[in-house]
Amino acid sequence: MPSVRKKLAAVTAVAAGAALVLGAPGAGAAPKADQNLPKKLVKAVNPDKVQKHLIAFQRYADQNDGNRAAGTEGHNKSAEYVASKLEAAGFDVTRQEFEFVYDETVTETLTVGGEDIPVIRMAYSANSPEGGVTAPLIAIPEDETPGCEVSDYSADVEGKIAVIQRGACTFAEKQTAAAEAGAVGAIIYNNVDGALNGTLGDPEVGAIPTGGVTQEDGAKLVAAAGQEATLDLQGITEQRTTKNIIAETKTGRHDNVVMAGAHLDGVPDGPGINDNGSGSAALLTTALELGATPKVNNAVRFAWWSAEELGLVGSEYYVSQLSESEQFDIALYLNFDMIGSPNAAYFVYDGDDSDGVGAPEGPYGSADIEKTFVDFIKKQYKITTQGTDFDGRSDYGPFIEVGIPSGGLFTGAEGIKTEEQAKLWGGKAGVAYDPCYHAKCDNLGNLDRKALEVNSDAMAWAIANYALSTEKVNGIKPGGKKSKAAIAKLRAGERVLPKVANSHAHEHAAVS
């Protein structure tokens, strides 16, 4: 039987719900700040409490065809679980609704010379004719920008299925160029190990049936050029509604908010326990242990994003709905996406670009956020962390784009642990940080409890410290007046994140 998988991909989000939780400007009616709060919160947040929320997420997935993808009951129940826990604890909670296009794969098969080749239909791919499209394969030459322009295709591509290497431009651009050259189908093969699970990013751009295969199978298809193949890709799309969950403390000043977020949705292929039940459950535990009326100087706003797996749709929508003044009211943003990978790395987002990889440094203040995480993990657990690039592939992206200082933690996805990292952190070299990334086996057994503990504690430490003071990030002293003009000056200048590949790192962007 053909495999049946559900994929989600987003288009423009449309408001359908309540206003955002923003709180009144100025200081909240908070008692004197508790300077021992960071130590108390770290002690209160423990893996057993986090595990209870993960068990709930697993059960909601089990009740929903094994997943918690946005727009499904698995996600809806997870979101209501989070919201109800927060409301019971006294938080002001908003369910921020928005619309997106749901894309469900019904059929995805590829046959060449009687051999079945595993293929993954790309979200928003055009449907093939019933029974598939049968045509000869043609290999598109590999160069620095393979298949990105119509000129990359010879006249011989007319009426054939183009086999194209991943890289340099989006999947959408590759299949569009192939279609304009006359191809009747496109198969994009990976340029690294592993399956190629992607999206065209927009339901309007699908021109020809388009699927992804592994690097190894891509080599087979290139060698089989000239042979007839049958590519059968079928899917359905429809508009659905999902929601972000936003909660804010009632105490602390609401014009210098500490914000922390994690995406709650998973992919359709599994329960999404490490990705990203881990960050979501730890964040919920931290919020509940902090409480709705903590003794803080700055209010704390928590967010559980939806449709992150579709291109950061929930967080992008949230930021887009903020006025400039409301953006300035957010002192910083902390992101927690995959913090319990079973072959864990200990990555901290590279706020000062000391690694010199990919994107530049984060907005002013991001370097201090990085240092806060690095120093705590080193002192508390004797673990040396490494930097990870701000590549725009998780929910910090929309915040960075408007100049909000950002940072966070990440234990790795499908990337391969090196020998040096295995010596530094333990685990197995030559194996993915999360071998079950975006797969059915991302369940309760797919976690490193030590990594979950370390990162949950680091989360609690950072949130509590910044709830007391953000002076090192934005110069605002506890109890001091806030100059929005000064904040605007700090955030001045346009920041452009680089295009990135579908992977996580995360398979969020529609870039090949």
Name the descriptors.
single chain, about 500 residues, Glucose Oxidase, domain 1, 2 domains, 14 helices, about 20% strand, elongated, disordered N terminus
Tell me what the structure shows.
- This protein has 512 residues and is an alpha/beta fold.
- It folds into 2 domains: 32-101 and 240-490, 3-Layer(aba) Sandwich (Aminopeptidase), CATH 3.40.630; 114-226, Glucose Oxidase, domain 1 (3-Layer(bba) Sandwich), CATH 3.50.30.30.
- The protein is 29% helix and 21% strand.
- The chain has 14 helices and 15 strands.
- It has helices at residues 37-44, 47-62, 73-88, 171-180, 215-223, 273-290, 313-320, 324-328, 366-381, 397-401, 419-425, 449-468, 471-474, 484-490, and strands at 5-8, 92-112, 115-116, 120-121, 133-139, 161-165, 185-189, 210-213, 228-248, 253-263, 298-305, 330-336, 347-349, 386-388, 406-410.
- It has a 15-stranded mixed β-sheet that branches.
- The longest helix has 20 residues, at 449-468.
- It starts with a strand and ends in a 22-residue tail after the last helix.
- Mean pLDDT is 90; it is low at 1-30 and 498-512.
